[in-house]
Amino acid sequence: QVQLVESGGGLVQAGGSLRLSCAASGRTFTSYAMGWFRQITGKEREFVSTISARGGTTYYADSVKGRFTISRDNAKNTVYLQMNSLKPEDTAVYYCAARRGGLATRDREYDYWGQGTQVTVSS
User: Fold this and answer.
1) Which of 47, 68, 70, 121 is 20–30 Å from 35 (CA)?
2) What are the tens digits of pLDDT across the range 19-48?
């Protein structure tokens, strides 16, 4: 069982930056690939980024490529999402998720989810 707790969301102006964190419980964090997703009310959850269990491989949605960076610190059981050059269309609730095995971009492939953190980008 893995419990995930996101933090770092908030209100920021367009062009600004935020760093999201996701702290994971458990001693097997290094067994899990991690992902970030986002969801706007009334819309389907959207893939943002994923990172392999050891952190050597990452993948991004085209909409965030070059602006967002995913990373992890396995010693701290934490995954991060650095978000730069934020746009109003990045406004959403951001969720982190964990899955055993390799990278995945579909939410149904993830086993554990955090409660989400709100990111609001004003124009």
Assistant:
1) 121
2) 999 999 977 888 999 999 999 989 999 999
